[in-house]
Specification:
The complex is a heterodimer of chains A (405) and B (151). With 405 residues, chain A is an alpha+beta fold. In chain A, 34% of the residues lie in helices and 17% in strands. Chain A contains 14 helices and 12 strands. Chain A has helices at residues 28-43, 62-69, 87-99, 127-136, 160-175, 179-194, 207-212, 240-243, 276-279, 285-295, 312-321, 330-335, 353-356, 363-374, and strands at residues 7-14, 18-19, 52-56, 76-80, 105-112, 215-218, 220-221, 229-239, 251-259, 304-306, 386-391, 398-404. In chain A, helix 6 crosses helix 11. The radius of gyration of chain A is 20 Å and the shape is globular. The two termini of chain A are 21 Å apart. Chain B is mainly beta. In chain B, 5% of the residues lie in helices and 32% in strands. Chain B contains 1 helix and 7 strands; from the N terminus they run H-E-E-E-E-E-E-E. The chains are: A alpha+beta (405), B mainly beta (151). Strand 6 of chain A pairs antiparallel with strand 3 of chain B.
Chain lengths: 405, 151
């Protein structure tokens, strides 16, 4: 018994997307409330119906939101551990909650404002705190600087970009992946963003632009990095039998999985002790196997893939790990035009992704999957029936959901 | 002088100046003060693990033997940090930091994440041989860095 087809996404809501800090005087809290109310309204529901929160990365405090919006009773409040890797997996937790009768109307959301904070630890003065963050924030660490921190604090690897560059470098070394391949991910997604009113980056991007951009952390240049943005996106999940009576065509959750190999663990952000066969990957392979198995489909059944793209090389590794091409062949696969909207064999990030539309820690991908399956996407994939949406790579759990119309 | 003291291009400054060692990690730092690299090896199955941690990830036993290693290895992966995360780090950039696999260990599980100094950021590559060099931060702490072994 699984949650296959037991639940559906029935509402989507979002604030505008903003460049970093420009959402002020809105706050993360006010934007969360706006997105939730908008998603409920999209479904033809109200906050009187809302009774569950299935979130990730502690995106909001359900207690505060329930009080603010006058939610009559909260029956479910969970968050997946770790960070953005959980976004697609939180949909599966929502589905499990409604299928088990633990709640009826569950919201999954992210809200993000980078006014005083900056994801990635580049805030002035925050470097040491970031270098030590993963353990000093542990409830078992007792506070202060943990003894293991002395093994990494002085090595200069401080931000997610520095970490993902290690994986990208080794992928290039093992498989001959080139910067031209990373560029194709960036350029194809920019092409998709250009047509979208929600996108923050809509100027044309050429191969010359890419190679003229400054290097940030080799082999990653400016365009290989996600942008920093503000905004909130929420979706509402209910049981399948109830979904068909609501305002929008249901988008069914065919499969969902989160987790990953134990040895992947927090390796990416801390010690890089992952075994060789996993190091040069997106960390998604175990999740990919499980999500396809639950949905009962194969990669060739997927019509559109919304792949978490905080760094462009990770799109290439997810194409490999989700079976769209053999391991190590992701570079040539994208170079052959396979991920292009309209002409590609598997259109990827038709919304422009984190690289060119906005970075709301994965929820823009969920929104795009839903719009594709409703047939209302700006860059609509003709006849799209099945969408794959992923979260991470990041510290475990990474996640994926397969959605259908 | 910057927030981070006098900087050397290619060398990330030691922003942590105390080891905050525990009994579990103290042998590493004691040896460091003598320019020696030691690592904990599972007394039960022989698996190395770094940083030192309570349990062996292979056999789940706790006891370790501290073993002296030659301090040489090969670059497993790396990045060249060209953009300073803090403006006062500009004079340290570009610097090379990456993952080194240590001779005498099993590789994964015992890798070190280090700043690799004295190398050309435009020619450094995976597989390059490197050797440990200790920066004496103060009387209490020596920080490991690696530098290329001339071919």
């Amino acid at each position: 018994m699984t949650i296959k087809d037991k639940a559906a996404i029935v509402g989507v809501g979002a604030t505008p997307y903003y460049k970093r800090g420009q959402s002020y005087p809105e706050s993360e809290f006010s934007m969360a409330c706006s997105a939730i109310l908008s998603a409920l309204d999209d479904a033809g529901l109200t906050a009187d119906d809302l009774d569950g929160f299935s979130i990730y990365s502690n995106s909001c405090d359900p207690a505060a939101i329930a009080a603010e919006l006058g939610v009559p009773e909260v029956r479910w409040a969970t968050t997946l551990t770790s960070g953005g890797g959980g976004c697609a997996g939180a949909l599966g937790v929502a589905a499990a909650a409604v299928d088990a009768g633990m709640a009826t109307t569950v919201v999954t959301l992210m809200t993000l404002q980078q006014l005083s904070k900056r994801l990635g630890g580049s805030a002035v003065g925050g470097m040491l705190a970031y270098a030590l963050m993963s353990e000093s924030s542990s409830p078992y660490g007792g506070g202060g600087i943990p003894p293991s921190a002395a093994f990494t604090a002085n090595n200069g690897l401080l931000s997610p970009g520095h970490s993902f560059a290690q994986i990208a470098s080794r992928h290039m070394h093992l498989y001959g992946t080139k910067r031209e391949h990373f560029a194709e991910v960036c350029i194809s997604q920019r092409e998709n963003a250009i047509k979208r009113p929600t996108a923050l980056r809509t100027e044309a991007l050429t191969l010359d632009d890419y190679f003229n951009a400054r290097m940030i952390s080799d082999p990653l240049c400016l365009f290989d990095y996600t942008m920093e943005s503000d905004g909130a996106v929420a979706v509402i999940t209910v049981a399948a039998d109830r979904a068909k009576d609501l305002r929008q065509p249901p988008v069914y959750i065919m499969g969902s999985a989160h987790g990953g190999s134990g040895r992947w663990g927090p390796a990416l952000f801390r010690y890089f002790q992952t075994p060789d066969d996993e190091f040069t990957s997106s960390g998604h392979r175990p999740v990919a196997r499980r999500v396809y198995e639950m949905a009962g489909i194969t990669p060739s059944d997927v019509d559109v893939a919304l792949l978490y793209d905080h760094f462009s090389p990770m799109v290439i590794m997810q194409l490999e790990d989700y079976g769209f091409c053999p391991i190590g062949e992701g570079g040539p696969f994208v170079a052959d035009g396979n991920i292009r909207y309209k002409t590609g064999t598997i259109p990827v990030n038709t919304h422009g992704g984190n690289l060119s539309e906005a970075y709301i820690i994965g929820m823009t991908h969920v929104r795009e999957a839903v719009e594709q399956l409703r047939g209302t996407a700006v860059n609509q994939v003709e006849g799209a029936e099945i969408a794959l949406v992923t979260g991470g790579p990041a510290s475990l759990p990474v996640s994926a959901s397969i959605l259908r119309k | 002088m910057s927030t981070f003291g006098t900087l050397t291009r290619g060398q990330f400054p030691s922003i942590l100046t105390e080891t905050h060692a525990s009994p579990m990690t103290q042998p590493f730092w004691d040896a460091a003060k003598e320019d020696r690299l030691v690592a904990p090896k599972c007394a039960s199955c022989g698996t190395f693990r770094l940083p030192p941690s309570p349990y062996c990830f292979v056999c789940r036993q706790r006891d370790v033997e501290w073993v002296e290693l030659p301090g040489t290895g090969a670059i497993y992966s790396f990045t060249v940090v060209r953009h300073p995360l803090h403006p006062d780090l500009a004079d340290a950039c570009p610097y090379v930091s990456g993952v080194v696999e240590l001779d005498g260990t099993q590789g994964a599980g015992a890798r070190m994440l280090v700043n690799i100094i004295g190398c050309d950021p435009d020619t450094v590559k995976i597989g390059d041989r490197v050797a440990i060099t200790w920066e004496h931060v103060n009387d209490e702490m020596s920080t490991p860095r690696f530098r290329p072994i001339p071919a």
